[in-house]
């Protein structure tokens, strides 16, 4: 209920912001977040309903998963985003990402951090003892990912908040889609993700879903998602700490 309430509030705020921007003159970044959230919710509802009646771990179900994601993404959500921003989304995104050298440097730095996180996951799994009945990474190892998250957000908040806004949306989409793949055991990555991530589970992930990393992303991103204008103007004044509230 808390998750649904939070999503409803976020989508409601984004819809209001989109409707208030008459004639498609709103910021494309706002529309990008709105379409991404709606797409993730719709896909989740469709797959949960479908795989309730059929085995999701078969190749047929996996093929349907990828086809449905592609059809809805390219046939519905991307045209919707194009209608809102009055430009092709891919062209807009590429132009947005290469707009300045600072953005290229940030993207390179974030790519390095992402690769580092992947290396940590693989390394920790390689150390896992086959004799352990319930292998679990140490608290220090899990806190290392928190450090990577902070190291990702601080430069973005300092140098380019719009880029951080978009990058956080892309990360949310990737995290949720990968969780769909893991939870529904979509081939060929579903079982591999289950095996790799089991090591990092704790009492907060005792259910069928692994949401800790998504909670962390949402907690750090909500200030700049819900109040982008205020965050952009908060370099001085009473709202100086607002963009950093998620990190703090």
Automatic annotation (TrEMBL):
The main location is endoplasmic reticulum
InterPro entries, per database record = Polypren_kinase
Please give an example of a GO cellular component term from this record.
endoplasmic reticulum membrane
Membrane topology term reads: Multi-pass membrane protein
The domain of life is: Eukaryota
Give me the segments passing through the membrane: 31-53, 65-85, 105-123, 144-159, 165-185, 206-227
EC number(s) per UniProt? 2.7.1.108
Entry keyword Plastid? no
What broad class of enzyme is this?
Answer: transferase
Compartmental location = Endoplasmic reticulum membrane
State a single Gene Ontology molecular function.
dolichol kinase activity
Any GO BP annotation: dolichyl monophosphate biosynthetic process
What does UniProt give as the signal peptide span?
A: none
Asked whether the keyword Flavoprotein is assigned, the reply is no
Which keywords fit this entry according to its UniProt record?
Endoplasmic reticulum, Kinase, Membrane, Transferase, Transmembrane, Transmembrane helix
The record's annotation in PANTHER family points to: DOLICHOL KINASE, TRANSMEMBRANE PROTEIN 15-RELATED
Q: Which family does it belong to?
A: Belongs to the polyprenol kinase family.
Please state what the protein is called.
dolichol kinase
Point out the gene that encodes the protein: DOLK
């Amino acid at each position: 209920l808390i998750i649904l309430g939070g999503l409803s509030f976020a989508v409601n705020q984004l819809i209001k912001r989109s409707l208030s921007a008459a004639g498609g003159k709103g910021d494309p970044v706002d529309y990008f977040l709105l379409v991404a959230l709606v797409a993730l919710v719709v896909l989740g509802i469709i797959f949960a309903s479908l795989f309730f009646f059929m085995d999701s771990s078969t190749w047929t179900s996996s093929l349907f998963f990828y086809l449905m994601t592609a059809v809805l993404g390219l046939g519905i959500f991307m045209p919707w985003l194009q209608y809102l921003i009055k430009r092709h989304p891919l062209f807009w995104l590429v132009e947005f990402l290469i707009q300045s050298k600072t953005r290229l440097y940030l993207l390179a730095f974030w790519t390095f951090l992402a690769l580092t996180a992947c290396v940590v996951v693989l390394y920790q799994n390689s150390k896992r003892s086959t004799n352990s009945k319930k292998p679990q990474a140490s608290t220090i190892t899990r806190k290392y990912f928190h450090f990577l998250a902070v190291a990702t957000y601080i430069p973005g908040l300092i140098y380019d908040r719009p880029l951080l806004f978009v990058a956080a949306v892309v990360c949310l989409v990737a995290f949720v889609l990968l969780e769909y793949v893991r939870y529904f055991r979509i081939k060929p990555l579903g079982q591999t993700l289950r095996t790799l991530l089991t090591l990092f589970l704790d009492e907060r992930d005792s259910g069928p879903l692994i949401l800790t990393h998504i909670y962390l992303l949402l907690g750090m991103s909500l200030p700049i998602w819900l109040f982008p204008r205020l965050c952009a103007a908060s370099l001085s004044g009473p709202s100086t700490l607002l963009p950093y509230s998620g990190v703090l």
